Amino acid sequence: QFQLVESGGGLVHPGGSLTLSCTPSGSLSNIYVSNWHRQAPGKEREFVATVTNGHLTSYADSVKGRFTVSRDTAKNTVLLQMDNLKPEDTATYYCNARLIGDMQIYWGQGTQVTVSS
Predict the structure, then answer these.
(1) What are the residues facing 35 on neighbouring strands?
(2) Cα 10 from chain centroid?
(3) Cα-Cα-Cα-Cα dihedral sign, residues 102, 103, 109, 112
(4) Which region, left, alpha or beta, applies to residue 44 given φ > 0 means left and ψ of -120 to 50 means alpha?
(5) CB of 110 within 8 A of CB of 7?
């Protein structure tokens, strides 16, 4: 069964950077679109960023200009580069994906990001 594994979370000071990875169990070329979402304690899960297999991207207003989503074919992974992190970015970050020809949405298990001084 197709799976996604997130990694790269951790503790960082305000203004710092982290890069999250979302690695599929199969080839990245089979993924039509990948999305990053996040969920802070006590809040609903919210959209963060999306990237298509054509490298089109879109971002939530709250992260625009600070986060960059990309597909790294050589590493077979989807990346979320997060710069100028703020305490309000603290959350569990999840990636999901939809495969070409498959309407099901697959989710990873999440990775924790904590921004604190």
Answers:
(1) 50, 96
(2) 14
(3) positive
(4) beta
(5) no
- Identity of the amino acid at 110: G
CA 35 to chain CA centroid, Å, is 6
Q: What is the mean pLDDT of the chain?
A: 96
Q: What percent of the chain has pLDDT over 70?
A: 100
CA distance between the termini of the chain: 40
Pairing state between β 111-115 and 10-12: parallel
**How far apart (Å, rounded) are the C-alpha atoms in residues 7 and 21?**
5
The partner residues of 30 in beta bridges, in order of sequence, read none
Eight-state DSSP code of residue 48? E
Q: What's the rounded Cα separation, in Å, for the pair 46 and 25?
A: 24
pLDDT of 76 reads 95
Asked if residue 77 has pLDDT above 90, the reply is: yes
